[in-house]
Amino acid sequence: MNLLGIGIDVVEVERIGSSIAEFGEKFLQRIFTEAERDYCLSQKRPAIHFAARFAAKEAIAKAFGSGIGKEVSWLDMEIVREPSGEPKVLMSGAGGAYAETLNVVDIKISLTHAEHYAAANAVVLVDE
To answer: How distant, in Å, are the alpha carbons of 12, 70, 74, 91, 109 from that of 37?
Structure first.
């Protein structure tokens, strides 16, 4: 395995909370999968969990070197939790196909959040 790229992102929780308050379901459906929305909305402080997943998606796109756009869109990346609590990335759609063309074998992510900020980093590994 070889390293394709790494990415990091930090998000203000209030910024995500404000977007949710202002744009509601339209914002949530544009950025997060149904499973992500269900998970975050089931938590005591949904905005902090949405912020962590937003940061993770930004970090993943940076690790791909593509940013959010044609190759990898918001909904192509889904952040799920393993039974152990470890976050995991599921790729689908055009982003999943793009990952296949790059021979991506794994995407490692780490999420963290505090009262005002959420952050994530991502490492994309390829088979070459």
So the answer is: 18, 23, 13, 17, 19
